[in-house]
């Protein structure tokens, strides 16, 4: 009986031990699971942190901090405005027909953003009339102060930009190879000379200068060179032309035996030759003034071009090559 009780007690003890071991294993298992879960959560948090850091870094790269100062912005805006394309329209005396395009090409080479529209080369008086009639231009270059004065009086010129650009000489020419000789102005009364080409004085300054010289020897009635009458000894010989260039062409073709042109015209036309230089004291000084037209939309570029014409060394060489004296 005692042995049976002892055996029963041993069995109970073993069962309790197994139960305790099972509970202990469960607690250990539960602890391991908890540790794994905690580690998993930490790993997820770390991955999310790394991903978020990368996204923020990418955003910062795509949108760098704005370090532009107001001064930098102003310089950038100014630079952009400086390269805005500009097309300048020039009204210029006919005698500039050869020299001015070369100056324009030189300027555009240094300032690619500036080009030139179809420059109008006409008699200065005609250009004044066009401006008065509302023609659009940025620059006016006249072959006489009086023509520029008229444009100023008409309200077409920004007078503050007016500048005397260069001078010229008045000469008497014949066709190349002609044997006509002129030693003084009185010689034009010779019977040998039957046709004299002169620019229409109201439109062509060269014609006005010529008439002023003729007035000095009694062959023209008005000392202004305009609105006068020729002396009977030459009145039938006078052939007026609309531009000084046409005067040169008329002599070159032989339609007129002599003509009054500028010394610079000898560089424009190969078929004429100088036979007499008209004394400078017999007419007003030949001065070419230039100015910006008052209603110009490109006033700054126009003023810069006028300054370039007078100060650029290469431009001065071109003017000299065509017989103009930069003032």
- What is the highest CATH level, the class of the largest domain? Alpha Beta
Described by its quaternary structure, the protein is single chain
- The counted number of beta strands is 13
Main beta-sheet strand count, sense and barrel state: 6 strands, mixed
Poorly predicted runs are: 1-13, 15-19, 24-33, 62-66
What portion of residues belong to β-strands? 15-25%
Q: Which structural class best describes the helix and strand composition?
A: alpha/beta
Helix fraction? Answer: 40-55%
Shape: globular
Strand adjacency order, main sheet: 4-2-5-12-6-13
- CA-atom Rg in angstroms: 47 Å
Please give the count of helices. Answer: 10
Identify the CATH architecture of the largest domain: 3-Layer(aba) Sandwich
Mean pLDDT: 83
Tell me the CATH topology of the largest domain: D-Maltodextrin-Binding Protein, domain 2
How would you describe what is shown here?
The protein is an alpha/beta fold. The protein folds into three domains: 1-65; 76-167 and 286-326, 3-Layer(aba) Sandwich (D-Maltodextrin-Binding Protein, domain 2); 170-282, 3-Layer(aba) Sandwich (D-Maltodextrin-Binding Protein, domain 2), CATH 3.40.190. It is 46% helix and 17% strand. It has ten helices and 13 strands. The longest helix has 61 residues, at 2-62. The protein is globular and about 60 Å long. It starts with a helix and ends with a strand.
């Amino acid at each position: 009986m005692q042995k049976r009780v002892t055996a029963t007690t041993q069995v109970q003890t073993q069962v309790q031990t197994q139960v305790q071991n099972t509970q202990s294993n469960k607690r250990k298992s539960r602890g391991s699971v908890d540790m794994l879960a905690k580690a998993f959560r930490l790993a997820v948090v770390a991955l999310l942190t790394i991903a978020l850091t990368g996204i923020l870094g990418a955003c910062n790269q795509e949108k760098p901090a704005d370090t532009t100062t107001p001064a930098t912005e102003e310089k950038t805006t100014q630079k952009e405005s400086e390269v805005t394309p500009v097309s300048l329209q020039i009204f210029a005396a006919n005698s500039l027909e050869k020299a001015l395009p070369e100056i324009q090409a030189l300027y555009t080479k240094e300032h690619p953003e500036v080009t030139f529209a179809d420059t109008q080369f006409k008699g200065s008086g005609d250009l004044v009339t066009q401006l008065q009639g509302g023609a659009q231009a940025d620059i006016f270059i006249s072959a006489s102060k009086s023509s520029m004065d008229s444009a100023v009086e008409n309200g077409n010129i920004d007078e503050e930009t007016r500048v005397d650009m260069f001078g010229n000489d008045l000469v008497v020419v014949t066709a190349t190879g002609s044997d006509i000789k002129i030693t003084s102005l009185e010689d034009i009364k010779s019977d040998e000379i039957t046709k004299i080409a002169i620019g229409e004085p109201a439109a062509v300054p060269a014609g006005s200068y010529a008439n002023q010289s003729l007035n000095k020897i009694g062959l023209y009635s008005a000392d202004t060179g305009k609105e006068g009458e020729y002396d009977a000894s030459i009145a039938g010989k006078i052939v007026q032309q609309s531009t000084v260039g046409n005067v040169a062409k008329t002599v070159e073709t032989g339609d007129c035996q002599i003509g009054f042109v500028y010394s610079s015209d000898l560089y424009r036309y190969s078929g004429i030759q100088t036979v007499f230089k008209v004394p400078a004291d017999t007419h007003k000084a030949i001065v070419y003034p230039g100015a910006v037209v008052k209603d110009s939309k490109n006033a700054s570029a126009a003023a810069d071009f006028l300054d370039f014409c007078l100060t650029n060394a290469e431009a001065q060489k071109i003017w000299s090559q065509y017989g103009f004296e930069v003032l």
